[in-house]
Amino acid sequence: MDDEARILETLRREAERLLASPDALMRSQYQHLYGRITALIAARASAAQPDAPE
Amino acid sequence: MKQTEPFFGRSAALARFERMTRAELDALLLAKLRRQLERAWHTNPFYRRKLEAARLRPEGLRTLADLRRIPLSTKDEFLADQLAAPPFGTRLGVPRAEVVLVNMTGGTSGKGQEIYGRTQHDVALQGFLHYLPWYMAGLRPGQMALNCVPTGGVTTGGWGPPEGFRLAGATAVHAGGAIGTDAKVDLLQRLGELHFIYASTNYMHTLTEAFRRRGIRPADLLPMMRGIFLVAEGYPAEWAHGIEDAWQCRVHEGYGSTQGAGFVCATCEHGAVRADARRGQMHLFEWLNYAEVVDPDSGEPVAPGEEGEIVLTNLDIQGSPVLRFATRDRGRWFPHDACDCGRPWHCIEAGGVGRYDDMLKIRGNNVWPLTVDQVVFAHPEVAEYSGRVFVDAAGRTEVEIRLALKAEALGMPAEAQARLLAGIRDGIKDRTNVLMTLRVVPAAELPEYVYKARRWSDERKSGYAAQR
Fold this sequence. Notes:
The structure holds 2 protein chains of 2 kinds.
Chain A: H1 3-18, H2 24-48
Helix pairs in contact in A: 1-2
Chain B: H1 12-18, H2 22-43, H3 45-53, H4 75-84, E1 101-104, E2 115-118, H5 120-136, E3 144-147, H6 156-168, E4 171-174, H7 181-191, E5 196-200, H8 201-213, H9 218-221, E6 227-231, H10 237-247, E7 250-257, E8 262-267, E9 281-284, E10 289-294, E11 307-314, E12 325-334, E13 347-349, E14 354-355, E15 360-362, E16 365-367, H11 369-376, E17 382-391, E18 397-405, H12 414-432, E19 437-440, E20 456-458, H13 460-463
Parallel strand pairs in B: 3-4, 3-5, 5-6, 6-7, 17-20, 18-19
Antiparallel strand pairs in B: 1-2, 7-8, 8-9, 9-13, 10-11, 11-12, 12-13, 12-14, 15-16, 17-18
Helix pairs in contact in B: 2-3, 5-6, 7-8, 11-12
């Protein structure tokens, strides 16, 4: 796992902890944050993959 | 009727601002104003010039009253600056590459559209400035929300709501402008679930009337409704009570603008009208946008209960910020303790925000009499006209234009007169997006003007039929 991927994974784990916030105002925003990070991880993973054989 | 869930202190993020004393909030506002002036001084040539002209350095801001040393900013100044240094003017304040979204003002003023560059930070804040008032109106994650305001496009009002609903974690249905009113009723029957509606005042009326025509009581079909959030137009308290009765939930309201990057204030759990028909208060989100309400002639702050012009200063927006922007919006100011909810945020009375200029908000469109003047008087056959905005028996907002023709045009063949009226009607529709009804009347029916013409009357405030 390279540095960027490691940072993203750390952020994902930390953001996941925020999802348990008792603060109703912030919880949905943390879900948004978590969604952004998982989307970035997915985007990065697909960009890093070599072209699939035809 | 279901009440909006009280939320005072429920959110740690918001409780900080709810539990402050007014003195603590003022101290925070002063610190944030200094920071924003500091930012403008170093990054924003437009405001640097204004600050220098006012001989005010950021560190010179010692009290909130010192802010009034900065002259008001106006739409005309922004437009002139953007014309001289297109497209963003000298007011952008962030590196050009950090702009991720362009927002523009409505543009029907006939003066031109201001351009706003939003950064990632600003887009997130713009979303929050829509989410926050809806949270206050009771919207919670997972709830079904109907957005009746058209989305997308170039305006803040088109982009903020989808972002706001997403931040809310709500299940958003963006039907505004996408499907007609009857199709919305069909859709709601199909969904069978709805908790929240965001709509202009006029559209809320139209939607409720559509239910009535079908013989459906909204509260019977959608008993889980939690809140209705109105925007854009004033209304009589009796009308809001009628809407609350039909939907069996609280009516809320927010006031916002492109310059505020979203909502500037909104009602709390007490809603837009009280049971005794007193109007509710919209609480200003002062820590995000500092708002003054000033006498437009003297520039001095108005006294409690008085009307004045709303003047906005962004405290967190980075791209194309505004400092002391004169909105030309008219609001009645009240100190924070006018509402018994206990928040230290000053207020603007719900239901009564209007314009200082003569703009008419008709079916969600900004219509300036000047625009109509230009179309009507482009036809030399016309002597005078008079416009009337009213609510018809079916509850629709209608516009009637009475035209007086010049004596020499009175004898024109019926066919030619029909062509003339069609040309005017189509021209008005093109320029304002509003279809108006035209009628030729004898010139004596119309008043004569010796100074400024007052051709328009707006009878909507007294005209909404009370809901049963």
